[in-house]
Design goal:
The chain is an alpha/beta fold and about 350 residues long. It contains 14 helices and ten strands. Helix 1 runs parallel beside helix 6. The mean pLDDT is about 95.
Length: about 350
């Protein structure tokens, strides 16, 4: 499948996932006793980092106490935490996952509730779960369409659980609206920014190393993008969490490298990103950015940037993930032309 078709597949899957989630998730989530203790979140297989991202969403939206671990770690170190009426959320790629299936069985033995999110009802974990939330995307577990749709669906689920059970906050109306706007924003980015994406990929190809830097909601997108670029035979790319980069910029990037900072005007860590970008410039690192136009300090301090529509932090991070998946696809097609240091 060509790049254009892959990007369009992401957009179609996301739009359908959010449409169906709006119609279906509310009824299902009300059957779960979310407020009786911590929420345990396990991302299975290559979704382990997605489990951490989902945990952050539950914490940020509703102040829930969350424990997020891969199922192998949970089985061996944290099983005693599961009690009667505990809620265990399993994020499942396609395929058989014995440790996750064993964890689901152990949770049931202890009187817990198992919730699964997957892209098919045929998933073994869905069959073991008490309740399931579906993502409308097809393909293998590393499919970009599944990754972006799963990311958006988990954030929407955390938000809808919070809406249903917590006292309303004024910002929620805008967050809700931005989730509705998200498919259209992906469409706009795809039709309007292809030239900018090409320019950024060509720019990055001239550097021996590229650091992807993000924090908070934007950490999962940069971590996933680095993994994706490695899997596409681009080992010179690495991800760095924003606070780590800010505390030791010279360790992560040197003169002649490039760093792509992913942020937004609604990011609660934007000041950390601004500091990190300033430190990169002091190291004579080429500063690239992915943010919105209201994030003026990062925009003005970048050598080249991609400006996306402004959204609240959670939906904006899905938009960033979409763009980074697209960048990864284009990176594979662009030969590296490293400049001498």
């Amino acid at each position: 499948m060509g790049t254009r078709n892959q990007v369009q597949a992401i957009m179609s899957a996301l739009a359908l996932t959010l449409e169906k989630a709006r119609a279906e998730y509310g009824t299902t989530l009300r059957k779960v006793r979310w407020g009786d203790g911590p929420i345990y979140v396990c991302g299975v297989g290559n979704y382990s980092a997605l489990g951490l991202a989902a945990g952050l969403a539950f914490e940020s939206f509703g102040g829930w106490h969350v424990v997020a671990r891969p199922p192998e770690v949970f089985l061996n170190y944290s099983l005693s935490l599961l009690q009667s009426r505990s809620v265990l959320v399993l994020i499942s790629p396609p395929g058989e996952w014995p440790e996750a299936q064993e964890l689901a069985a152990r949770a049931h033995e202890r009187g817990g509730t198992v919730v699964a999110m997957a892209n098919t009802m045929d998933s073994p974990l869905v069959k073991l779960a008490d309740h399931a939330f579906l993502v409308r995307a097809e393909g293998a577990g590393d499919s970009p369409a599944i990754a972006v749709s799963m990311h958006a669906a988990l954030h929407l689920l955390a938000f809808k659980v919070t809406q249903a059970l917590k006292k309303p906050k004024p910002i929620w109306e805008q967050v809700d609206r931005d989730f509705d706007l998200l498919p259209g924003k992906l469409e706009w980015v795809f039709t309007q920014l292809s030239g900018v994406v090409d320019s950024l990929v060509e720019e990055a190809a001239h550097f021996p190393r590229l650091c992807l830097v993000g924090g908070g909601f934007n950490y999962y997108p940069v971590r996933h993008a680095a993994w994706r670029m490695h899997s596409l035979a681009s080992p010179r790319v690495e991800e760095v969490e924003a606070t780590e980069f800010s505390s030791a910029a010279s360790h992560f990037a040197r003169r002649g490298d490039a760093a792509l900072f992913v942020s937004g005007s609604h990011s609660k860590l934007k000041k950390t990103i601004h500091r990190a970008a300033a430190q990169a410039r002091a190291q004579e690192v080429r500063v690239l950015s992915l943010t919105d136009s209201n994030d003026r300090e990062l925009v003005e301090g970048s050598d080249l940037g991609i400006l996306v529509p402004q959204l609240q932090e959670a939906p904006a991070s899905t938009l960033a993930l979409f763009l980074l998946e697209w960048l990864a696809m284009e990176t594979l097609r662009t030969p590296q032309q490293v400049k001498p240091r």
